Amino acid sequence: MSFISAIDRKLIRDLIHLKGQALAVSIIVACGVAIMVMALGTLSSLQQSQETYYDRYRFADVFATVKRAPDSLARRVREIEGVRVAETRISRYATLKIEGFNDPANALLVSVPDFGEQILNRTLMHTGRWPDAKRPDEIVASKSFVDAHGFELGDQLTAIINGRARLLTIVGIGDSPEYIYTLGPGNLLPDDKRFGVFWMRRKALEAAFDLNGAFNDISLVLGRNAKPNSVIDELDRILAPYGGLGAYLKEDQLSNAFIESEMNQLKNMAKIIPPVFLLVSAMLLNALLIRLIATERQQIGLLKAFGYTSPEIAWHYVKLALAITLLGIVMGFGFGAMLARLMTNLYGDTFRFPVMIFTFSKSSFAFSAGAAIIAAVAGALNASLSAARLQPAEAMIPAPPESYRRGPIQKFSARLPFDEPTRMIMRHLVRWPGRGATTLLGVAAAQALLIGTLFMFDSLDVMLDTFFERTDPYEAMVNFVEPIGSNAIEELKDLPGVISVEASRTVAAKIRHGPRFERAGIIGLPGNAVYKQILNENDEVFPVPEEGLTLSSQLAKMLDVGIGDQLTLEILEGRRPTIISPVTAMVNEYISSPAYMNINRLNQHLFEGEVVSGAFIKLDPSQSDQFSKAVLDRPVIASVTLQSAAIKSFEDTLEDTISIMMSIYAVIGGAIAAGVVYNAARISLTERGRELASLRVLGFTRHEVSYILIGELVILVLLALPLGCLFGAALAYVFGQAMSSELFRIPIVIEPATYGVCALIVLVAAIGSAVLVSRRIGQLDMIAVLKTRE
Amino acid sequence: MNIRRNTNIAEAIDDGTLISARGLTKVYDTGEVKVHALRGVDLDIKNGELIVLLGPSGSGKSTLLNILGGLDRPTEGEVIFRGETLTDFSDARMTKYRRHHVGFIFQFYNLVPSLTARENVALVTEIADDPIAPDEALDMVGLADRMHHFPAELSGGEQQRVAVARAIAKRPEILFCDEPTGALDSKTGVHVLEALEDVNRRLGATTLIITHNVGIADMADRVFRFKDGRIDSIEIVGRRRKPSEISW
Ligand SMILES: Nc1ncnc2c1ncn2[C@@H]1O[C@H](COP(=O)(O)OP(=O)(O)OP(=O)(O)O)[C@@H](O)[C@H]1O
Ligand SMILES: [Mg+2]
């Protein structure tokens, strides 16, 4: 008595016989499943970590900054319908002088109540204690900053707070849900050495910034049924007289927005990449089954003659496809779980969660397995049904011999000056176009996938290059504590190492167009600015127009405006004028969505005379240390950022991540190419084993015979590469669009070198697997071939 | 005509022996049982001879031919071809041996379906040192007018004659034919045998033909009778008959 039916035993033997090919398909399925499990698993880990953190440390729903508002105003805010909790605080920038560290660094100073802890956006204390309310120089510092400098509790550093140098002592090390992703002023990436968050007692900051009995920052938690937009409107109305800079929801909170954008990318990755793998696996299963069924024709005839029904036969072959897919699914689960862990750890370096909770998304397993099974059935169905349709009598007769007949193509090819092995390759290709197409498309898909993922490193290059070389080629950027008279620029010019200085004036504004509005910074630049430049749609530098507003195309899209449209600008600073201004130009920006205006025009609108809020500086690089020291002594500076330091930190941060991600993409892209070519070669070998063994008998060497097998594949791969480049460019476009967000836009740039590298990966993978198969030519049984009729 | 005898063979071996076997045994070990396909075969074949190998099914004829042709190796014993011990050759040298010295003709033709008759012959002439032109080889087997046909467009006899042309076009020193007429009716078979006979005479290619057909023995110089993995008897035929005179 056996538990496995005879026909299932046949299935198992078939599988064992096909193990190489089956495994190749399984691996491709596994890659697709793994990416889905990885992306969704990482996503759920991020989500969980974020939710837990937000929940426990009460991340707020609404944020607003104001110039100076009396404490009593908080009560009015709490009365807004929908507001459950409101907490005021003081939050300002300061510059830092750190012993043994030459570059200027910045800190965000955030107040905690004098007694106890915050209610919202609470600080998680890793070690140490809260500052003593009687000691204004004690701070809790953010962990990443402390770690980057190797500080310990009790260590001291100098901060220049509102123009006055103060020696601060670290008494605690903390973190907060507001700064999971900590970006310093003017930075593109977190730079833990040059930016930290310091929590200080409220009293200390009130004194330092002259804000006794006042606040400059407020956070709200809303009730379940609150209408966020009407809360924001009301809050803005209340804060306006006190210099409110516009309230915003947590979706627009910087750290949160970065996390959300990352999560969105993971979602898109799960949507776009796995289908490519599953499509290829379906195509391969189809080819594999067609071949298997051709060899098993007579067995199928026999089974039918014995009384097996058509559905039983079809199911038999579908089961084979499912078995192969199931193996892939299991491998994919394992591989995906590994990758998810790796990715989650990578994110742990960028996103400062106190604990990175690692969870699997259960639905990712169900989803990916379901999708893989559907793909398997789709791939197997056609071949399996054709097996089921075979008539027993007909199937028992061996398939007619491969009939090559004289057609126009054959006649033509007979005249071409090929040697006979090459002619065999050509004829075989023309004779079986469907099979060639499967290989071609499969390899093209591999190439497309490689390009569609690896192009992002080109995009990143372009983004960085554009930023550091073209739009922001300054060496140092300075922000003043308050807008200040333009004589500050002259003062900066006197600092050591300064070659020239360019003024800028940035104001917060609400830009309205009909019912739509966006909060944005309007950056005022001189018409002849060279250290901060803007690019038109063709990526050419152009001066900020004398008149009107220049919008980043992203902002224009959000506001639904074009050149010539009139906008209402509600300035949120100073006298808060409302300006009607036309859009006079558009700029391409990859990072954030700003607006620009001529600085003189802007100042006229603001009725403030010649006022600046920041400056871009060109330095003599050899004197940058002297500059760094001297600039901190200026009383007016809130933050200073060195571009060279930013570039360096960029390289440091991204190098590891990029090489890890590139290897993952290269391996999975290569896996497709290898799997497709391996399968094609194996099918070809089974089918033409007789022919190839005959050639060995005739005295052809192993290499000469391999040429016939591999030559065909080489032609297909070479044809597939340009097609793959085309598909790849399309995929890159889709992917780039999906990955772009308000924070940054991914330029679709594919360098020739990237096409080359991708083609190289495909070639190496394809040649590797073809060589693997061609080794079997040495094992062809020359004698068996002679004994049997075809 | 530019068809010449191969002269270098006669120079190499004084007594005219082209290929010899000594103590050849072949044991197939299939796990449970050992099959003794050859049990000590000694033979010498002279240059230009046409040998017919007769024997019951399973007696080891094909096994012997495969070993002599460099497709297989014996369990024991050696094969000497023009003074060199074939059985010591590496795989690569075996391939060279087949490529330059040996022609094969099999029961099932083994033509490449994607190549025309002419191209099937060219397949071999392209890798040979001093071949006959494919057209000429096909002419010798009477297929000049079918040169551009694919195998699927030829009859069995015609396909086999293409195989003969393919085997002889490289001017092999020795031609191994394993039941060349096995799949053919007698009339077509005679055509193929005529082609072989012609090649043997005109090119001087030593020829070894395996057959079950006793009648074919009449066209040989010598007939080896095979039994149980050994040569049972050798018969020297006085006068070779033409294939057309043979009846079966
Ligand atoms: N690969 C193999 N494995 C096991 N036994 C084999 C193998 N090849 C041949 N034999 C056995 O060796 C013996 C000799 O076989 P061979 O093919 O040489 O016979 P033959 O004389 O050519 O027969 P036939 O006239 O039927 O072609 C047979 O008993 C056969 O079963
Ligand atoms: Mg035989």
Q: Label the overall shape of chain A.
A: elongated
Number of strands of chain B: 10
What is the element string of chain B, with H for helices and E for strands?
HEEEHEEHEHHHEHEEE
Contiguous uncertain segments of 5+ residues of chain B: 1-13
Helix percentage of chain B: 25-40%
The largest sheet of chain B has its strands arranged as 6-7-8-3-9-10
Average pLDDT value of chain A? 89
Q: What small molecules does this complex bind?
A: adenosine-5'-triphosphate, magnesium ion
- Largest chain interface and its two residue counts? A-B, 37 and 39 residues
| CA distance, first residue to last residue of chain A | 37 Å
Strand content of chain B: 25-35%
Structural class of chain A: alpha+beta
Radius of gyration of chain B: 17 Å
Q: Which key features would you list for this structure?
A:
heterodimer, A: 6-stranded mixed barrel, 6-stranded mixed β-barrel, about 20% strand, B: about 250 residues, alpha/beta, 6-stranded mixed β-sheet, 4-stranded antiparallel β-sheet, 7 helices, 10 strands, globular, disordered N terminus, binds adenosine-5'-triphosphate, binds magnesium ion
Structure description:
The complex is a heterodimer of chains A (790) and B (248). Chain A has a domain of 175 residues. Chain A contains 22 helices and 22 strands. With 790 residues, chain A is α+β, with helices and mostly antiparallel strands. The longest helix of chain A is centred in the last third of the chain and has 55 residues. Chain B is α/β, with parallel strands linked by helices. Chain B has a single domain, classed as Rossmann fold (3-Layer(aba) Sandwich). Chain B is 29% helix and 27% strand. Chain B has seven helices and ten strands. In chain B, the strands form two sheets. In chain B, strands 6-7-8-3-9-10 form a six-stranded mixed β-sheet, with helices on both faces. A four-stranded antiparallel β-sheet of chain B has the order 2-1-4-5, covered by helices on one side. The longest helix of chain B has 18 residues. Chain B is globular, with a radius of gyration of 17 Å. The interface between A and B is large, with 37 and 39 residues.
